[in-house]
Structures are given as structure tokens and as C-alpha cells.
Amino acid sequence: AQSVTQPDIHITVSEGASLELRCNYSYGATPYLFWYVQSPGQGLQLLLKYFSGDTLVQGIKGFEAEFKRSQSSFNLRKPSVHWSDAAEYFCAVGASSGAGSYQLTFGKGTKLSVIP
Amino acid sequence: DAMVIQNPRYQVTQFGKPVTLSCSQTLNHNVMYWYQQKSSQAPKLLFHYYDKDFNNEADTPDNFQSRRPNTSFCFLDIRSPGLGDAAMYLCATSRDLLGSEATNEKLFFGSGTQLSVL
User: With an 8 Å Cβ cutoff, are B111 and A42 in contact?
Assistant: First the structure.
């Protein structure tokens, strides 16, 4: 069965510093990979996704992520964090549910705090 | 404007007392999902509707039921809530089943309903 591991439960960075959130997945086939962000009191919002092709994907709000098959990783990065980036970040893998469709399996999330 | 709306934002119920959570969408999407997110846990898919077809995840307890009377609305019914059912319940939609049009797919989430069981 597929699984997603986000090793860091909580990360604190200073505003303007760079950010990397780690995500490792376990899935037998080529995965579909996603990063979602959840601000307090809000639903999850898609940041970016990887299906195929270029392993470095660009997302909204200045985020990017790199798929590394050899490491089973899909880490999220941002060169300069803004205070508004404080939120919880979820990595997810899309696993086949049959007939060409898939469902998402989420990691437990990483909470990001930003120090002004 | 909110596109996936969940009511209420907070719901308190008593142990064993049936409770219904509501989700509506203005996107006219075919698929609606219910996720359970316990504190410090990953969102876990309970079931989804593809149009009127109900799809239950294998490990979703029988205590959880769902209804979709029309395209716009989907309800989560918990027949006899236990203390372990206290969680955030997230509703989500997608235009079609994920996998059918990969490049344009994403889930649209509501803000969730936080359920407390006393």
C-alpha cells in the first residue's frame, strides 16, 4: 500500500530565509505527487503537482518541488519565506484505485511557523 | 467566494447521538469526497461520490454513512458518534475522477467542520 512520510512535524524559519519541507513516499508504480497547504481555518489548497516530465515543478506562491525517484522524495522549497506562508503543508501521493483513476493518500503534515 | 461550503464550522454532539455534517458546492463538479482529519494526523478518505455512485473506502467504519441528494449537496451522517470520531471533517470536490484528465486535476476543499463528541 502507498504511504507518505513527512519527517518534520513542525519547522520554524525566519522571514526571508529559505525553506525546504521534506516528503518521502512509498508506492510501487510511478507516483502522482502533490503538495497542499492548509491555512488556519481554511481548507487545503493545491500548491503544485507532479505527474511526469520535468522533475522540478513550479507551483503557486513561489513554491517549487523536486521529484527524486532514487530517493523516493518530493521535497518542497521556497527561496525566501514570507510571514503569510505560515500554515500546515501536506504532501500527498496519488495511488491507483482502478479503472485509470486514483485517490490521494496524505502525509501527516508539517506545520510551518515564520518568525518576523 | 467560497466554492465548497461546509456547515457548521464547529459541531458538538453527544456520545451516541446521531449527527449530520453538510457540504455544498457551486462548482458543478461530478465528484464529492469526505475526509476525516484527526489531530496531528493525515486527512483520511472515508468515501466519495462520483455523480450518484457511492464508493466506500474499505476501512471506513459502518458508523459513517453519506447521502448525495443532488449534484450540489453531500452529507456525512455519523450514526452513533464515539469519542474517537472527534476530528475535522473535510469535504472536497473534483470535476471528474482523478486520473481522467491529469493535467487539469485538483481537489477543491471546504474549510472543514470540527466535530467534538462529549
Answer: yes
